[in-house]
Amino acid sequence: MRKFLRISFHRFIILVIITSCISFAHAGLPSAANALRSGDYPAALRELRYWALKGDSTSHRAQCALGDLYLEGKGIEKNHSEALKWYSMAAEQGNPRANSMIGIIFAEGLGVPKDLVQAEFFWLKAAEYGETSAQINLAVLYINNPVSEEKTVEALKWLIVASRDGADEKLVNQAFKIQEKIRIQLSEDKVEKAKNLAKKFKRKK
């Protein structure tokens, strides 16, 4: 049986968090964005809570952002349970990033029992909607837990999709680096299969 490399989830958590302090201006929350940029976390939290509970089209973005701040402990005491609460609210409204972050919480056991089955469930939901961080983390999960070679083919598929469709340069670069490492551990037929699966992939809307 082939020996596959192991990759720590923490590498991707760090990247996801760095790139996740969302461009609130583009999310329809410019005042929260300005407060965060200036380090005025109390003002940012007030704005985000207001929009998170407003119940309109921007609520899920504000909820996801609150999840980020509680997870990181930015301007507020770190609280994984609160982070999960806000992410769950955003996920219920179909926010892919929120699903991705819930996957990280379960993968790392942050305030909940570690559960890779749940992590896979939430990452797959987010990956299908085009969330690059979820596609990479899902691939890492399959690489680190190679139940079968087919799962590694699936991992390569997601890495190809992430490097092809991702908008975040850091995440795209990570996807490229990891796929280069696992390509050499798969037969040419398996690599071609992964490429074909990636070609057929269409993100859900």
What is the C-level CATH assignment? Mainly Alpha
Could you say what the CATH topology is called?
Serine Threonine Protein Phosphatase 5, Tetratricopeptide repeat
What is the assigned CATH homologous superfamily? Tetratricopeptide repeat domain
Any idea what the radius of gyration is? 17 Å
Structural class: mainly alpha
- Provide the CATH architecture: Alpha Horseshoe
Number of domains: 1
Features of this protein?
205 residues, Serine Threonine Protein Phosphatase 5, Tetratricopeptide repeat, mainly alpha
Describe this structure in words.
With 205 residues, this protein is mainly α. It has a single domain, classed as Serine Threonine Protein Phosphatase 5, Tetratricopeptide repeat (Alpha Horseshoe), CATH 1.25.40. Helix content is 70%, strand content 0%. The protein has eleven helices and no strands. The longest helix is centred in the last third of the chain and has 17 residues, at 149-165. It starts with 8 loop residues before the first helix and ends in a 5-residue tail after the last helix.
